[in-house]
Amino acid sequence: MTTWTDLVNADAFTEQGLVVTNPATGNVLATLRDMSDSEVNAIIAEADLARVAWASLTAKSRAAKLKAWNDLILANQEKLAQLITAECGKPLAEARGEVAYGASFLEWFAEEAKRVYGDVIPAHAEGKQILVLKQPIGTAAAITPWNFPLAMITRKAGPALAAGCSMVLKPAEATPLTALALETLAQRAGIPAPLFRVITTTQPAHVGGILCASDTIRKLSFTGSTAVGKILMRQSADTMKKLSFELGGNAPFIVFDDADINAAVDGAMVSKYRNAGQTCVCVNRFLVQDSVYDDFVAKLTERVSAMKVGNGAEEGVTVGPLINQAALDKVEKLMTDACEKGAKIAAGGHRVDGDGAFYAPTVLTEVTPEMAIFSNEIFGPVATVVRFNTEEEAIAIANATEYGLAAYFYTQNLGRSWRVMQALEYGMVGVNEGIISTEVAPFGGVKHSGLGREGSKYGIDEYLEIKYCLVGGLT
Ligand SMILES: NC(=O)C1=CN([C@@H]2O[C@H](COP(=O)(O)OP(=O)(O)OC[C@H]3O[C@@H](n4cnc5c(N)ncnc54)[C@H](OP(=O)(O)O)[C@@H]3O)[C@@H](O)[C@H]2O)C=CC1
Ligand SMILES: O=C(O)CCCC(=O)O
């Protein structure tokens, strides 16, 4: 028995249903109930009923419950971290970090709940007042990915509950146990059960269809692939839901010749290899100016060669398995295509033996836009390095993608910092920084990378409606 089992309600388990495995070992962690349509519909109806009383509480009361949920998550940090590592494979140190990061959204939105201010607008005529109210949108649904099984949930549930909404969640098939553990802790924190319910299913597309078609659900927030985001957007047209999408990326990381190269290599390591390269903001393309190209590649290769691949639960492991065999096949296919077109392997470039889908941390040089790896989200531990000559060329290469989530660049020139920051067509830009994620800043993308923002003071707006009231007869 692992230590996290008391965090998952015994009712969730069954003999046949959704099988959850450890990607590092292939061992079965649990088999969970495959919920029926009527159960899913009942969860939606109960969530809708419960939200009315929840919204009528003071913001301070809702905030207290969210804070209690945050505290319980932190009190169970080690158990949750072990569960995250078991389900999604990331090294334990990263999993511990995810628990703290995930909890921070609850603390943040507990505070923001108290700051949902309306407006009084100077009226256009005498004897009238214009009031703007902000009200909870209603029942919300979330569909979340496996790469951050905890933080991607709290980033949505925090603002939803803070705003006075309820939330129905469909987590990724690979990582439902962390979601169920969050559900348990929410209930222990005193959040009424129907307000945050997890759907376990083996039929994501079918359940996604139910959520999109439901008129009761007024808001859908999704994090995952751009392809699925587009399906959900189409399916939500008939119910005119408010949507937020945090989708794929193709992040450039530009190293200019005036950069601090050691700092750039530090930034590259944390940005590229976090979660074995499986985050939407991981660098997909390093663009390095010709005169510093060899230095950067040599320093990066040295650091990458020292990384340790293995089961994330083992001491010292810095790169865990990819989530499944399909992910490994995708990385290999991209590597084969790139090498056939002239790319060179400076480090890694091969599978690593084991029961899981392990791939060696890799540095691939002389990458060009003709290679599929240049334009596809790699979602693996492969750094591709592209050579450029001028600032204009770097910006053009960086923007030559349908995606627009995160971008990074390193320079010590102030003027260049402003120029490049403004020219990059991305929702988030790290300037001399490789990690940009924090609950206090707006996370989200432009172009095919999504709609809306999560976290920060803006994140709660996704769960609020603006109501304009014209009050007359006041003379
Ligand atoms: N932006 C990001 O953070 C992420 C980007 N990705 C990108 O997507 C690629 C594929 O990863 P993958 O896990 O398959 O991502 P998906 O977009 O398929 O999965 C994300 C979530 O959507 C669910 N889902 C899948 N299909 C549907 C559907 N038709 N209707 C409703 N929900 C659905 C999944 O359920 P289930 O898991 O049960 O299939 C999961 O909960 C990755 O290689 C990466 O490039 C992936 C994850 C996160
Ligand atoms: O990959 C994602 O979808 C989330 C990125 C994690 C983060 O930095 O918030």
Automatic annotation (TrEMBL):
InterPro entries associated with the record: Ald_DH/histidinol_DH, Ald_DH_C, Ald_DH_CS_CYS, Ald_DH_CS_GLU, Ald_DH_N, Aldehyde_DH_dom, Aldehyde_DH_Superfamily, Succ_semiAld_DH
Gene Ontology MF term list: succinate-semialdehyde dehydrogenase (NAD+) activity
Signal peptide location: none
Keyword Oxidoreductase: yes
Assigned keywords, A-Z: Oxidoreductase
Domain Aldehyde dehydrogenase: 16-468
Biological process (GO), any one: gamma-aminobutyric acid catabolic process
A Pfam entry, by short name: Aldedh
PANTHER family reported in the protein's UniProt record: SUCCINATE-SEMIALDEHYDE DEHYDROGENASE, MITOCHONDRIAL
Family: Belongs to the aldehyde dehydrogenase family.
Protein name per Swiss-Prot or TrEMBL: Succinic semialdehyde dehydrogenase
Organism this protein belongs to: Aequoribacter fuscus
